[in-house]
Amino acid sequence: MDEVLMDEDDDCPELVPIAGNPLSPGEQIPVTIITGYLGAGKTTLLNYILTEQHNKRIAVILNEFGEGSALEKSLAVSQAGELYEEWLELRNGCLCCSVKDNGLKAIENLMQKKGKFDYILLETTGLADPGAVASMFWVDAELGSDIYLDGIVTVIDAKYAMQHLTEEKPEGLVNEAARQIALADLTIINKTDLVNGEELNHLRDTVRSINGLVKILECQKSRVDLSQVLDLHSFDNKDGVNLVEKLQLVKTTRPHLDKSILTVTFEVSGSLSEDVLNVFIQDLLWEKAFKNQAGLPMIVIRLKGIVSIAGKAKQVMLQGVHELYELDETPQVWGEEPRVNRLVFIGRNLDREILQEQFILTVLKVGDRN
Ligand SMILES: Nc1nc2c(ncn2[C@@H]2O[C@H](COP(=O)(O)OP(=O)(O)OP(=O)(O)O)[C@@H](O)[C@H]2O)c(=O)[nH]1
Ligand SMILES: [Zn+2]
């Protein structure tokens, strides 16, 4: 018996509490991922946050993760204008493996040495898939990590974004700039000094056509109201924002660009069983089992929803990033009105009617059982 337990520990080191953990539960540190195409203004935003936020101890991960050649990366911690640096040794260029093994450990080491910090900002490279980075922190939070994913912020270059978004990609590949917008909880259209009103409107409409959920700020030199950037709580439900109300405002979008990513949303009344819902989500995200009218598989990049699980008094939040998803009970209790499931999908080849039909099939299956 003991042996079995030890084996399990070996397989899942994350489950073992870290000795001397300086944080008590509930004192988790938020991580904001700052992404955006090459030269959009990510570093400018980081520097702005560091100069504006005097009362927070902020750790910054400034690395160009994912670029295979570099072996050493630094982790910089800023406090009151002073910068501490810790070198990380990354065994390979894969962010998912190396940061999980090294990055989180380095963050914990740093906290042991320098005392804990309040916030982590992570700048990805211009071409990175922020979904890979996001899922790392997201999953670890599930395992009781000291760190949780607060939000994905995508900085957009007002002048060059349309050019990046319309760049033709080889068949099957998603445009990186569009993916970064699809995954964002917040987008910052930066460098508005370089475009006229008409160009800005066009870009704003295009961003909205890709991601019907995202909040859009506009600025120069990445100077934005930081209360709109930090502590978003995009992946939990502690922001006090009523997700039902938020999702109600989302509209299915019409693609502005050829073969582009778009948002579809629908609502279906009734309650469903968690098991059947899992089957639906896994068919969609993992099996890519649903096809649009042209026979192309629907690819979901981001997923958000409120669902009603039969027998549960509280609303359940659904979150997905690429192939990862999570169902989380919210504190919100269903009211007197009939329960309505509201779902928002952001991705490619999405067909609202077909998706809704598949979802209704799921709901009806449960109805049969009741
Ligand atoms: N005209 C103009 N230039 C800006 C603005 N914001 C940033 N820049 C400039 O744009 C350039 C790129 O800014 P960065 O903050 O380094 O961009 P980045 O996204 O970190 O770039 P990479 O890390 O190389 O992908 C810098 O020269 C900035 O000074 C703006 O609002 N207007
Ligand atoms: Zn940068």
What does this structure look like?
- With 370 residues, the protein is α/β, with parallel strands linked by helices.
- It has helices spanning 2-11, 42-52, 95-114, 130-142, 161-166, 176-183, 197-210, 243-249, 274-285, 352-369, and strands at residues 29-36, 58-61, 72-79, 82-89, 119-123, 147-157, 186-190, 215-218, 262-269, 299-307, 314-321, 324-333, 340-348.
- An eight-stranded mixed beta sheet has the order 4-3-2-5-1-6-7-8, with helices on both faces.
- A hairpin with a 6-residue loop joins strand 10 (299-307) and strand 11 (314-321).
- Helix 3 crosses helix 4 (130-142).
- The radius of gyration is 21 Å and the shape is globular.
- The relative contact order is 0.12.
- Bound molecules: guanosine-5'-triphosphate and zinc ion (ZN).
